[in-house]
Amino acid sequence: MLKTALHFSHQLLSDCVQPGDVVIDATMGNGHDTVFLSQLVENEGHVYAFDIQEKALESTRKKLEKQNIQNTSLIKDGHQNALTYLPDNTMIKAAIFNLGYLPRGDKQITTKGKTTLSAITSLLTILAEDGRLILVLYSGHDEGMSEKEDVLSFAETLSQDSYSVLTYQFINQKNNPPSVLCIEKKEAK
Questions:
Q1: Distance from C-alpha of 83 to C-alpha of 123, rounded to nearest angstrom
Q2: Which pTM was predicted?
Q3: Beta strand segments in 39-103, E
Q4: pLDDT in tens, the chain (189 residues)
Q5: Residues 6+ apart with CB under 8 A from 179
Q6: What angle do CA 63, 111, 128 make, to 5 degrees?
Q7: Which of 16, 49, 108, 133 has the fewest CB atoms within 10 Å, i.e. the most exposed one?
């Protein structure tokens, strides 16, 4: 049975993230990815999770406390500012973006192509070899469709000598189902 876009994004993360790695949840949302990443990196690693909404931080904090997870930093700011919160010389193994709006939240507050591209560009500068940026693209609303087009256009410009870029999407489902974009940094030759 085929999995959902979210399940596939988690598989892509599981395949590259190891205990001790530093990773980013670029869109904290309700905390599911933050918890998942914290389990992958274990106590030796660290998760930096970002969101602009207090509701997202509260939901995530509750999930972390319930499981006694302490290897995370929850940051109320946009993902485009991620580098300002990381220690100098930090390299990340992965980052995940679940774009769009907060589930069960205000649908008027969405991620935007401009800030998402800014975040991707900055995170690529600190992405370790064989590291991955995973983006779950929700295009079922106007801003999401525009953002998806911006992200895909940008990804097509990445050098094939430096990055492998993959998309995963359902092509027989109605209502613009989510798709996944994976950008993997190749080993330097």
A1: 8
A2: 0.92
A3: 46-51, 72-76, 92-98
A4: 457 878 899 999 999 999 999 999 999 999 999 999 999 999 999 999 999 989 999 999 999 999 999 999 999 999 999 999 999 999 999 999 987 755 666 666 667 778 999 999 999 999 999 999 999 987 666 676 778 899 999 999 999 999 999 999 887 777 777 889 999 999 887
A5: 5, 136, 137, 139, 148, 167, 168, 169, 170
A6: 75
A7: 108
Question: Whose structure tokens read 């959902």?
Answer: 4
The amino acid at residue 52 is I
How far apart CA 31 and CA 183 sit, in angstroms, is 22
Would you tell me how many other CB atoms lie within 10 Å of the CB of residue 2?
Answer: 6
Q: How close are the terminal C-alpha atoms of the chain, in Å?
A: 38
Measured in residues, the chain has a length of 189
Angstrom distance (rounded) from CA 72 to CA 41: 10
